[in-house]
Amino acid sequence: MAVKIMIDAGHGGWDNGAQFEGRKEKDDTLSLALAVGRILAENGIDVEYTRTDDIYETPLKKATDANESGADYFVSIHRNSGTIPEQYIGVQTLVYNDSGVAHRMAENINSELASLGFVNIGIEERPNLVVLRRTTMPAVLVEAGFINSNKDNAIFDSQFDAVATAIADGIMQTIG
Ligand SMILES: [Zn+2]
Fold first, then answer.
1. What is the pTM of this model?
2. Separation of 90 CA from ligand 1 center, angstroms?
3. 102 pLDDT higher than 80
4. H helices within 51-122, ranges in order?
5. Which domains does the chain have, with CATH numbers?
6. Can 57 be counted among the known catalytic residues?
């Protein structure tokens, strides 16, 4: 049976996520989530999405959908944001508990993204995030650069396909 992965585009609908100069996190997360999912599907992985258009679902609904789908892994896509524009740069992956397969997946995704020029700011444990806490399978939340960093947005936009491939490669290296 094929491995099943639930891909979650962060935010959506009324929840724009972080915003910077008219750019909305919910749009970046959706386009990147769909691109990552397309690559995984091309590689024989059974992909499901928490959303494929601009709608809001609660984090608990997303986690419940993942649990009920029988997904083997949960990958949530976000963009980071600092309090002040240009304050921070880099990619970071959040996990419920920094161990086991989620740790390895986070490490692989971060290092693939760093190869595109993003600064790797590492892995962080976030045990209170609902999509990490309430999912029953290994789960990671990828912060694909800061939305209020022009340097990170330049990588995100000019190398969009490579960013999607990097995340997909990091996932596939882990589940090998
Ligand atoms: Zn977010």
1. 0.98
2. 14
3. yes
4. 59-69, 100-114
5. 4-175 (3.40.630.40)
6. no
